[in-house]
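Protein in question quoted in full.
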Amino acid sequence: MRLEPQPYWINMDNNPEECSVCFNNYDDNQLRPRTLLCGHTFCSQCINNAIKNGQLTCPSCRAQHAATAATQFSINYGMEALIRKLKGIEVVPEKTLPAKPIKAPARGISKKLHSMVEEQNSFISSLITNCEEVLSQLGEYRGQLGDWKTHHLQLQDRLYALVEQNKSAMKLLELEDTSVVDMTTQGEEGKTQLQAMLGSLDTVNTAQEVFMTINEVDQCNMEVENWLKKCQELFPDVKTVHTSVKVQETIREALEITTTETGATADPVHLGDSASSIMNKVQEITGEIPQKQLKVEDLRRMRESVKRLVEAGRVLAVQEDQGGRRSAKITLQDGQLYLHPLLRQPTPANAHTLQESEVVGVLEPSCTLAFLDLGWAGSTRGRVTIRLTPDTPLARQFVLLCTGQLGHTYRNTKLLWVGDKGYPGEWVVGGDYESNDGKGGATLLPDLQGQYRESGRAGAVRPRGGPGGPRSAQFAITTRDDQGRDQWPGVFGDVVSGLDVVRAAVNHSNIKEVTVVDCGVVLPL
């Protein structure tokens, strides 16, 4: 049976006792309810049927789980308790509901003893609840152990592959060594013959002996010269040397990582309060950050666990508004964090989220960097990084349009036209976030007046038409120096890298095919 995405919440609201995939009632055997790591519950049978090649895709959120059997996922004891409760409830018409009888103490038992019995009942019920909670934690922990075992098997396969590569490299080295030994033997024999020829030439007495010795010397010389040529051709064998060096580097790096991460000198981990849940203790040991607990400060420290989350695309900045939730990617490249624009897109179930306001709050006006990714002909051609002039309204507006904080963004806007193409002072215009044809691009801020520079240098970034223009959200980038003419006013930034990308775009056959594929800001953490 194939698991298909289902609106599981409908089934949970109306028929919680049913599996939302097969619609059969849960039981305590094949159809026992089990909860995936993403939080969704299905029967054991449907989970087993959906596992393919050690992977399970959740039918509700499509999250991927490593699994070989449904038993790796914890039993939903809360669901089972709810089902038992539902089975014990009889639906009786309201008019015929009898008055709730007052439970009297059993005969022969005093009120005090009855109170003790009730106290024990309450205590036992509380213990049952605690047992169910711990059983649920154990189930979740077992699921984690199952994931780790799968990862270990995968790593083991990779280690076996490294061992096989090492064996292959060793065989090549052995063959090469055998060839070297053979050629060494031939060379030593040739050298001995040449030394003998020297002795023979010193002892010749007749013309006949001279001619005979010279013939032998010529033959010996030819054999040795052939040997020398053969050595030059055969050694070193490129494949053998290259394979050996690369395999050594790969294995050495793997061993260094293993030694670093599993060293016996690692500090012991304090597990804290014994009342912490099992999975919280696991997270303390592994250094993993629980969902909803990631802080901006964690991005500043960039521990290995946080780095892995960012590289996996599991860290997002989110903003709630009247239209719902928007989220922005946070990526890591060359040791630098990048915040991308806010978009209306599904948030992965396993994502760690930070408030956009907190993330943007770390931006310092004195070192604000923004970026535009330009692309054409179906591919991204490069990133343009712009250093913005500190604390100017145009720079703040540019950041707003790179991050989408107010709903508008430069993402997917076109470059519009090129001015003075091929001449000093050449410049290109883009950034019409409204109509994408040059007619839009109204200001987002009420007042853009400020202290701006004038510049005619390549890389200068300014608004189209000056700070007070009706389309001042559009930007212009100068691509050729022009120090001999009037310089452009209102400059609020300079391209610090990627000017070659802008120049390549200007030289493209149709400038309107060039698009801002992505944009955002650099996080100075």
